[in-house]
Amino acid sequence: MPASPPFAARVYDLVARIPRGRVTTYGRIARAIGDPRGARMVGWALMDAVNDARDLPCHRVVNRVGLLSGGWHFGHPDLMRGLLVAEEVPFKDDYQVDLDRCLWEPWNEDEGAAPHSV
After folding, report:
1. Predicted TM-score of the model (pTM)
2. How is 36-99 classified by DSSP, letter by letter?
């Protein structure tokens, strides 16, 4: 039986599938890859991806309440917000996305790419 891919590789694979106009959370990624307590490790893996200039939509990952907690990895949360606004991700506040309208659940990939309407 082949060994499972390294943690970061599984995170990157999942993040690459987040549809345009949608976001998910660090915890949901961790749960989807089988490590429900690994949200912080997901954040570290994404920080490395941003720093290495990987072609991943890391800006589509927010914290459990929708805050742009990873925004400083882009230089400032305004940069992360700008990327999400360009994808028409709805916001509740300056740095908090509206998860009720744009949350993508990794285990429901058949949801499609269009943002939810409320």
Report:
1. 0.86
2. TT-HHHHHHHHHHHHHTT-S--GGGEE-TTSB-TTGGGGTSHHHHHHHHHHTT--EEETTEE-H
